[in-house]
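Possible race condition, two jobs.
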Amino acid sequence: MLTIKVKPAPRLRAAFARWAVTQDPKVDTCSHVEFCVPPKLFTLVPEELLIGSFVDGHRYRSPLDDEQNAAVAAAEERVAVPGQPLPEVNPAAHPPDSTPLAPASDGQIPNGDGQNPKKGREEAARPAKSRTRRAPAAGSSRRKATPEEAS
């Protein structure tokens, strides 16, 4: 029989179990933390019991969460105008212990060391080093020791 494995969030496990035993037929457990829910009953599971759970190994994404995230993203959307500085970023977008970057001078993007702007391009233009082994020089090969020399 086809079932959907639901692993509720630990804080909702008891509430999910209460819902599962009230169904007809009762929902079985797959393991000590997972429930095997028939597809017909899965559509009847209350949304608040599924938020934070894993369904068939994937995190459950609530349609309500998607609507809230879309509304927040639309409210924070900013438009940059070519030739003008970028709009200010909402301070809540960064953690409190983050360090802001220094602005680039003359509109140039600084390279990694901040010393020589051409250095990065020169290194990128060089061919990659070969990883092949060099052949030993003529006459430098090791010879095997004879039994007389070993004693």
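Job #2 (started ~2 s after job #1):
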Amino acid sequence: MLEAKNPELMYATKQWYGDLSESYIHVSPQTKPNEHSGRAWLGGAFQKDGAEKVFDELSTILYNMGLMTCRWFKFDDLFDELAGEIRAMNGEEGSGRG
């Protein structure tokens, strides 16, 4: 639905979902856990690159949930504001940010 009406707001793209699915959902013997810094880790170890990826993925999910929630409850003003934030992050014109 969002892809057909506002494709520029598709924060969770087919490529994003494919990467998520391949790396975390449908693992294979070739999957290397926590390979964010070029080295796979098993167990508790802090990796800055991994933490950044987690926050990026969480923001993708939360932005999409926010857009769906705004549409569902007809919060058009909040939808427009959130859409402007997404457009600004994507570097698009007319984001409404000053």
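The two ends are 29 Å apart (CA to CA).
Logs attached separately.
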